[in-house]
Amino acid sequence: MTEHPGLDLMYDEMRRQGPDALATIETGALVAAGIADAVRRTGRIVLYAMGGSHHVNRIAEPLYRDLGWDARAMNASEALLSPLPDAARAALVVSQSGESGEIRDLLKRGPGREERFGLTLEGDSTLARSARASIVAAGGTERAFAASRSIVLTLAMHGAVLEALGAPQDALRASLAEAADPAAIDAADAALAGVDAMIFAGRHAMAGVADSAALSMMELARVPTIGFEGGQFRHGPFEVLRPGLGVVLFRSLGPDRAGVAQLAQACVAAGCATVVFDASGDAPIEGTVHVPLRRGDGLAAAASMILALQHLNIAVARRTIAEGIGTPQRTTKVTA
Asked: For residue 3, what pLDDT is reported?
């Protein structure tokens, strides 16, 4: 036993997340085909979740729209207070445990004309029992408190659905089999060593990555963070830019690519420690710390970034927490 038993559990999850995610894309194909049929029949898909699962939904949301479907991601809590009008649509209810309080409450309400499907790690959960059908990720329960493998598996489950809708996911498979350069992660950690708060920002699918990154850093390293959609970051929040603030930006080969350099330059000019996780293949931006990743966009870029961010989160946590990394102080694994 170490002084960080929660972190030991997280390392166990990380060691098997890649193979489990690859298996999930394949084993989820049959249910994914049924989900794709519902999307094609109705032309609409809504993604319900809470916590980290919602942020993964936000990664996938624009990718469904890029295929021509009316897609939106909603917090389950928001849907409970202000439900969508009843209409024919596919609904993906996403929960690693399948037992989150808001998810159970949502499932208690009749689906109306929604065709509800589950994405979960737990085949015996309330979600899996209640949904029309569910993709159940390979490998079973995530035991660590800080989400790692469950985030990657949720990406993989969306990958199975997107592939069933005609978007091949070979690049996602390749990203799941690669690791970031440890020296680049060390450089990012060193750049952020003097900051007291962090902002994460990205656009398109990378906006969901930014939200996921901010939550994961808070959850594991207990550092004050916030995630922004990159356009929203420019509208007011620039006033907080200053020395002592860390800014982490995400750049893929997708539609978000063009605007990242301008954001980064503004942050550098304000004295912020600025890190760019970069799957674009473009040259490093002057004044930033560059974390090069496998060139790609969509879920492939998101997976590369999230896998790399896990190591950055751990590095920051090791600097800031003397004992008990990964052991929650005020929350539980499943929020009832």
From this structure: 83
- Say which residue the tokens 């085909």 belong to: 33
Compute the average pLDDT of residues 238-250: 98
- What average pLDDT does this structure show over 260-275? 98
Could you give the domains of the chain? 5-168 (3.40.50.10490), 182-320 (3.40.50.10490)
Q: Which two tokens stand for residue 8?
A: 């030991």
The SS3 of residue 225 is: strand
| DSSP structure class, residue 193 | T
| pLDDT at 1 > cutoff 90 | no
Count of alpha carbons within 13 angstroms of residue 280, beta-carbon side: 22
Q: Token digits for 29?
A: 């194909």
Q: Are 308 and 217 in contact (CB under 8 A)?
A: no
- The tally of CA atoms less than 13 A away on the side-chain side of residue 55 is 28
CA distances to 32, 243, 311 from 112, rounded to whole Å, are 21, 52, 43
pLDDT of 74 over the 60 cut = yes
